[in-house]
Amino acid sequence: LDPQTDGYSTQTIAQLRDVAPPQSHVNAQVIQPRAMRDYCAVAHEYIDDVLTGRVPACLYVRNACQRQRDDLERFAEHSLYHFDETAATRVCAFIERIPHVKGPKASADQDIHLEPWQCFILTTVFGWKRKDTGGRRFRRSYIEVPRGNGKSALSSAVGLYCMAYDNEFGAEVYSAATTRDQAKIVFGDAQTMMRKRGGLRDALSLVVSTSPHGSLLLQPRTNSKFEPLSREAGTMDGKNVHCAIIDELHAHKTRDVLDVIETASSKRFSSLIWIITTAGSDTSGICYETRSYVG
């Protein structure tokens, strides 16, 4: 490991080569300073624990676990979809190389360690592909968790992955919200993550660009970017979204932001709208409507 680059360099090792897609234009040469876990196995164990009652879970979580188990069986052959374990592993391995930026774990300079429920979500969302286009099967995810479960940190890492490591040229990734301050939370954490890991930032060829209108994370060689986006700033239109992170959907008073993002993400085969929120109390809002659709 190179102490001058936080333990990362641009040398290739077999572990990461095994999870990099062939002929990728994205730099897959990032050293992993520790052994990679079997994330799909962790997710399967979580499914078993939920369905057998060892892990208490609500009806929505039990249904999601049962669907995943059923889909893995019924789509094993002759179907429109397939489960790509390499893609499922790739996103988890990337995120576990991202540091915490808040709280005691940040003070201890610890990287994110995915919990089983997080492995289940990530492998499900990123693992399923369409056979005809290679695009994602699931292009919208809705995740509802209590406070204190690291949802913003996870979302920031997902945004970084989709911008810099998802094999998408010209990726446009946005932290989307109704207000500037809310939009900056996920994006600001992503910036800090890359500042803490200069070696990883350099291996991914990321730069921070500052303008009078705000900051961007850029990957110039793939023409990709990650930036905050708010209705308040009047910057919502004219986008070609690869990934949109919508944090705290319950705080949205109208459906304007979600509607614009859905329209702007329709041009790509693998676009993803990542909605993550705590529970709210407004049964007439867009969050409750989305939650009802999931249920």
Brief characterization of the structure:
By secondary structure, the chain is of the alpha/beta class.
Plain-language structure description:
This protein has 295 residues and is an alpha/beta fold. Helices cover 40% and strands 16% of the residues. It has helices at residues 14-18, 39-52, 59-74, 85-95, 103-107, 116-127, 151-164, 180-196, 198-203, 256-264, 286-294, and strands spanning 81-83, 128-130, 140-144, 172-177, 207-211, 214-219, 224-230, 243-247, 272-277. Strands 3-9-8-4-7-6-5 form a 7-stranded mixed β-sheet, with helices on both faces. It has a two-stranded antiparallel sheet with strand order 1-2. Helix 10 (256-264) links the parallel strand 8 (243-247) and strand 9. The longest helix is centred in the middle third of the chain and has 17 residues, at 180-196. The radius of gyration is 18 Å and the shape is globular. Mean pLDDT is 84; it is low at 1-29.
Write the layout of secondary structure elements.
Blueprint: H1 14-18, H2 39-52, H3 59-74, E1 81-83, H4 85-95, H5 103-107, H6 116-127, E2 128-130, E3 140-144, H7 151-164, E4 172-177, H8 180-196, H9 198-203, E5 207-211, E6 214-219, E7 224-230, E8 243-247, H10 256-264, E9 272-277, H11 286-294
Parallel strand pairs: 3-9, 4-7, 4-8, 8-9
Antiparallel strand pairs: 1-2, 5-6, 6-7
Helix pairs in contact: 2-3, 2-6, 4-6, 7-8
